[in-house]
Amino acid sequence: MQRIYEPENLMEGELLQQMLASEGIDAHLVGRHLLGGTGELPIFGLLGLEVDNDQAAYARELITAYNGAQPLPGEEPDSFPDVLVC
User: Residue ranges of the DUF2007 domain (predicted)?
Assistant: First the structure.
């Protein structure tokens, strides 16, 4: 097993874990049970995505592509209702 990515939070970790699963990669989100002790544990490095060694390179490619994705032109809303613009 290799640690391939450290998500910023639990939501990002679970989202990426499911994205990898949809591509046939069995990823494990380690450290999720340590988040309750953040007052006494270091803040960074608790969460990590781990995959089998033979799937690590492909999983890194998928995460890099996901993090670099941009919205398609025309998908942005003209306005955001209920948002105060200052």
Answer: 1-65
Task: Please indicate, yes or no, if residue 17 is contained in any of the structural domains.
Answer: yes
Number of structural domains found in the chain: 1
Over residues 6-51, the pLDDT tens digits come to 998 888 999 999 999 999 999 999 887 666 555 555 566 678 999 9
The 10s digit of each residue's pLDDT in 59-72 is 999 999 999 987 77
Which domain CATH number covers 50? 3.30.70
Burial of 58 (0-12, 13-18, 19+ CB in 10 A): middle
Strand order in the sheet with 2-5: 2-5, 48-51, 28-30
CA dist., res. 32 & res. 81, Å (int) = 34
